[in-house]
Batch of 2 targets.
Target 1
Amino acid sequence: MTVHNSNGHTNGGGSNTALHVVIVGAGLGGLSAAISCSLAGHKVTVLEQAAKLGEVGAGIQLTPNVTRLLRSWGVYDELRASAVEPHNIWFRRWQTGEAIGVTHLVPNFAADFGAPYWVVHRAHLHEALVERAHALGATIHVKSRIESIDFDVPSVTTTSGLVVYGDLILGCDGLKSVTRRFFLNGNDSGPKETQFCAYRSTVPMDALLGDPELRPLVEKPDLHLWIGPERHVMSYPISGGKTFNMVLSHPHEGPIDPTATQEQLIGEMRNNYEGWDPKLTKIISLIDKTNKWKLMGYERLKSWVHPKGTYVILGDACHAMLPYMSQGAAMAMEDAAALGRVLARASSPKDLPTLTKLFAEIRMDRAYEVQARSALNGRIWHYPDGEDQVARDAGMAATLTGEHYIR
Ligand code: FAD
């Protein structure tokens, strides 16, 4: 067994370099934490299980709470070139595509919230975060899967037997978190089924622009959300407008068949949206590759921090949620920002029990509230046609005439 460097360095005259923060997982949450903890003046080591740094899936929506953070972290300008700033979110009736509501994003969001609403390719966001974390001095190790954690002598051990010591371990290891299992001391029942899955797919924008029927729908950089019984489809342009990203949410119970071929998945996807807006089904017919993704969630944990102050869990590992408010990564990034702010006050490991407790107090209610609201969005979007749906659509109609602005 090799013993990696422990935190030998001390701070010089009151700076915040007293801590070594070891981050498990280089996803969007872990990288954000690497940036915020580095900016707070601490030494950061990130351990990622994958052989190569990267992200799964194509598109991600970044609401102003995220773009504001990206600006304060020095990531905004790097990402701006490939980001799309959509003008509107159109809510569409499932059968006809008729607009039933709209949220105007430009100019309202930047004016009201001080930062824009962006849609980006996940790979671009991930790369920008990696670059900034490196520039701030964080070290990122790939092929480093953590299999155990020690809270007494704060350290993690990789599958190859490497022990990495730190003052604070951050569990940013996502939905299948290993560190969470140790934190809960064997009492972790794992992520819960939501009864939903999503197909994640892209279509080249040129294919849509070249079709006279589809062109008017996609020529403006807008988001389109078709809502209907038990299902919805969220779509938007990414990669500077070159790619049309689609997330098709539908009910599904039980495991996903790992042997399903692309042909089977695409056939199943088309069946799921049979009878929907002809423009939407035309777009779906252009999809030649898809991933089927199980949507899982976590129930509220009693705490996110170890009483000794040596471990903090954040991101999907503690509050995985339905993506129906586009806030899963946003909450992980807010967690990271809040942690950076409290750790800026740490001048020695002795401060950690108080400061990590403060972090959890700041973050837990907010993240679980957003998790609950995401589920509520799903219930409202997925009304079967009938009384509730009619009332919902009547309420949203005011947004089309400008009488009501959704905030
Ligand atoms: P992850 O992204 O899962 O990262 C965990 C990292 O830890 C991975 O790199 C993994 O390889 C690594 N790891 C795991 N175990 C170990 C180990 N033992 N040792 C070392 N490394 C390990 N959110 C938004 O804000 N906006 C959106 O528009 C949006 N859309 C979504 C659409 C869909 C269909 C889905 C499914 C989710 C969406 N989300 C969205 C949610 C968002 O993707 C997640 O909330 C976010 O990626 C969570 O980040 P994380 O860093 O906590 O976890």
Target 2
Amino acid sequence: MKPYTIDFDLLTGICKSGKVQPVQRRVSQMKMQFADPEAAQKAIDSGDPVLYEFSTLLNDEKKGTLAFGSTIIYPGKIGDEYYMTKGHFHTILDSAEVYYCLSGKGFMMMETPEGDVDLQEVHPGEALYVPGRWAHRSINHGTEPFVMLFVYPGDSGHDYGTIETKGYRKLVVERDGKPVMIDNPKW
Ligand code: PAN
Ligand code: ZN
């Protein structure tokens, strides 16, 4: 593989040369991940908004490579739960990831298979290190798009199944205008 330079606007995910295509996720793709499926159905019926989009440069997904890109989580709520990413473990569980907040503010909800839970708030100019073994989900509790750069080993893989079936142990919801972490009633 040869070194390369690429145009890539991390704040918007736009790559004019077309080498990176954004992936969008709408409420209909995550209905069961929200605590209030009725609120999710209402959102789907009234236009099925985009919750977030991300653009990734994958570089062959081989051992030793790095994947990088950015994620934009839009502001909003489904019921009283903030817009968030699906979240995942890496298939190679030990694979770590670095995030760097470019714009907006939000949380990273993390948990291990053993049940450790960690919630970190990040602001522009702050980097977050997600060690291997920690599932991670980005949550936007602000009023602006929450944008983060990410870099992870190219062969990490994404295990969505575990989170899809069981959910996270904890949720972040709005109470009296403020974000609070609560137990997931479905866990
Ligand atoms: C990120 C995420 C991105 C979208 O690139 O894939 O933020 O979140 P979901 O993959 O949970 O939908 C990353 O963590 N990659 O490993
Ligand atoms: Zn990841």
